[in-house]
Amino acid sequence: MEHILEIQSLRKYYGKAGNQTKALNGISFQVMPGEFIGIMGSSGSGKSTLLNCIATVIQPTEGKIMMQGKDVRSLKGADLSEYRGRKIGYLFQNFELLDNLTARENILLPMSLHNLSDQESQKRLEQLASYLEITDVLDKFPAQLSGGEKQRTAAARALILKPGIILADEPTGALDSKNARMLMEKLSGLNETQKSTILMVTHDSNAASYCKRILFIQDGLIFHELRRKIPEETKQEFYERILKVMAQLGGGSANVL
Q1: Residue 252: pLDDT band by 50, 70, 90 thresholds?
Q2: How far is 105 from 155, CA to CA, in rounded Å?
Q3: How do residues 96-120 score in pLDDT, each as one tens digit?
Q4: Sign of the C-alpha dihedral computed for residues 191, 201, 140 and 161 taken in this order
Q5: Is 178 left (phi over 0), alpha (psi -120 to 50) or beta?
Q6: Backbone angles phi, psi at 175, to 5 degrees
Q7: Mean pLDDT across the stretch 176-197?
Q8: HEC string of 135-174?
């Protein structure tokens, strides 16, 4: 099976020579279709920088980001727009919903930007809203939604174009334990039933325990890797193994799911 994403010797340096911060220092790994991968590490280890490079929010200093065989760094114009809209779906920690649009309008916005038909847009909206349990809040504005409803609305927006890979940056960071658990169960369900490929940055060992593989980053490089032993290993057992590695990195779990 061909990998969907390959990171090759990726580097991101901030500052000038002699006074540089090496956020990423030559990191390399591959993502296969249908994987649910967590990216963990202490604060400042390069987790979000990595995700932002993949999303083309920031440009790396060196290295390659290969999405289905194409170097993302070479994309421009319509090809770059297509990549950002259809190849990836981005789920932010702070939702990033437009306050003057309803939940429905926020979710449908990517569809209108990429000229999909109203019929197809409505079909996908109804399916996602039902699955994410937000059907009854579609006509409310973000200010009228709870944190969990906002994040599930944001998840629907990220998923509606059926992207090749979902990038999630601390998706449970602004949620209470109940809503965090619900979101992770929904993402895990998408991975299990629809084989959605998910790459998630998180500091939370509980959220990470829903993943199938964890890459631990330290000083801009992969320090360690864990794989969940499917199906014999329970989520609790995997969580305990994650905690042991995080203890070595000097971090733990901030939330309890």
Answers
A1: very low
A2: 14
A3: 899 999 999 999 998 877 777 788 8
A4: negative
A5: alpha
A6: -110, 155
A7: 93
A8: HHHCCCCHHHCCHHHHHHHHHHHHHCCCCCEEEEECCCCC
